[in-house]
polynucleotide 5'-hydroxyl-kinase
Amino acid sequence: MKKEQIIQGPCTIKVLEGEARILGIEIQKNDLLTIPSDKTYTLVYDENTRLETDCKKLLDNLNLRWDEIVEEIINTVGVVLLLGNVDSGKTYLTNLFTNLATSYLKIIDADVGQSTLFLPTFIAELKPMRKTLNLEELGYDTLEFFGDITPSTNPRLHVQKILRLYETTPKERLTVIDTDGWTVGLNSMLHKFELIYTIDPDYIIVFDQKIKDSLPENYRNKAILLKSVNLHKSRSERKANRIAKYERYFKEAKNIKTLSENLLGKQISNILYCAWGEYIQLSDEEPCTDYYIPLNLLKGALLGIIENKKVIGAALLDDLKENEITILSRVNKFTGLVLGYISLNDKFEERRIRFRKCKS
């Protein structure tokens, strides 16, 4: 009989007798595994296994069976959609799939608020090449830029971006789609229903009975309810996690100058631009035509970088002067920039860019 306990680092685990595993990675006799600070994992082992560890034990005597359920799914392959609230375990389960089906798996990280493979506001796809205890180490293969940290801004666009990555990237025997934690309210469920009908998954893994009960009737037989461990991060912890991602990414970025029309369209004057037939005004002056964006929020805007119609990275708008803008980016060759709804201040804290419709 398997035993399960949830442990937290920093610590080490050594197997004295028998074997154990974390996230599908086996720890054999005399192996020593180091767990980083604040990382939390489920340790699975046999009754006759003897361990030497200084890990903090958060929960013991569990019967989650996540490993068994994942192994059953990967033996039949198909498309797996993960649905659950914030911090319910979707990303952890994605990592477990990665380690147990590395050679024939594609994962899509569609959680734009707590992104794993890339930065918040982006959707990322990856064909993993190795096992890991931390998905963030593996990077990404393909990106889409959504532009916000919640799908609620434009639910349909969010579904379309996921579908594009699903359809345009190489097919694999098993695809796992890790979704966002927006599950409260009618609009959130309509968003999930559209995603279900669009992708038509073979399995829907849920972490909440209410979500399972609310699924379209013809998909409930595809739903698998997993036990949740309820180890939730606070809102401030989730915010700190996003800030840390921004800091790490842009720490290695460089200043690059380019024409302002690559972002805002054709310049009409020092405060007025025309993009896709509509005017964008950067100063709150009358008369105002079409849209007004406050210049103080535009500086620091998080951007998607385009090369040959593909999203290849991220940038920050550092400065705008006349017909020239300065961006902070790791990418120095691109053909276009895409503006989203999020701006960062000098501490990498998020601010919302509000596109205000001018008075008619």
In short: The first helix runs from residue 66 to 74.
